[in-house]
Amino acid sequence: MRVGYLTDKGNRRLKNEDSVMVVLQKRFFMLADGVGGNKAGEIASRTALDALEDYILKNEIPEEQGKDKMFLYFEDAVNFVNEVVCRLSEGVPEYDGMATTLVFAYIGKDALYISNIGDSRVYLIHGDEIYQITEDHTYVNDLIKMGVITQEEAINHNKKNVITRAIGEDAYSGPDCFSVNYEKDDKVLMCTDGLYTELSNEDLLREMLNADDMKTCARTLVDKAKLHGGNDNISVICIDKMEESDEQ
User: Fold this and answer.
1) Are 8 and 239 within 8 A, CB to CB?
2) Among 73, 139, 187, 211, which residue has the least CB neighbours within 10 Å?
């Protein structure tokens, strides 16, 4: 398995509120996008990933027990992360109200297990197609699902950045969990909205298919997002199951 990952503050933001972490020995990959602007988003995202790493290192991943047990494990992990972030937010006045998205993936023997809360995404590249596995927890996505607005109208909607679920918020309601088949030629792309709001699915697919290695792919995707505006922080994790070494 070869992995490349990168986070960048982009062109317009003064600081980077995204965080990325790879726990290769556990085949666990995670990223978070702090929300709340001046409410310590970077602290929220880093705290969430540190807490999630702590959880998976101390609690055995129950892959052999099947999908249902894996989903319960993910839900318990996210609940633990949320409690850690909330406790820190309540204990430090300048962190009050901080929150973050969270998405993570575990690569099993034949399946890819994913969980998310917020609008950070996981894509699966299978053959010559790209599939968004996660669903955005956003106000505009809810409007799209209800048929109130179209995908095109959502692009410039004045509430397109409003998150409906996040780690650390009062209305926390748990994550979504997914399990998909993962074949030897498949690739995985994980990213924050700073990437996919600047590049189309076709752009993402082309770079994932054409990259010589995943480290180069991560750098190229970030650079292209910045060339297209780089209006937000940008974080990516690129995974190629076929390779035999890892790159950082």
Assistant:
1) no
2) 139
Alpha-carbon gap, residue 44 to 39, rounded angstroms? 9
Pairwise CA distance, residues 237 & 6, whole Å: 7
d(CA 51, CA 81): 5
- For residue range 176-197, list pLDDT tens digits in order: 999 999 998 899 999 999 999 9
* Cβ atoms of residues 117 and 167 within 8 Å: yes
- Which residues are CB-neighbours of 135 under 8 A, at least 6 positions away? 116, 141, 176
In three-state secondary structure terms, 219 is helix
Q: Is the pLDDT of residue 81 over 60?
A: yes
Number of H helices, E strands in the chain: 7, 11
Sign of the dihedral defined by the CA atoms of residues 231, 237, 240, 243, in that order: positive
Sign of torsion, CA 206 211 213 214?
Answer: negative
Three-state secondary structure call for residue 129: strand
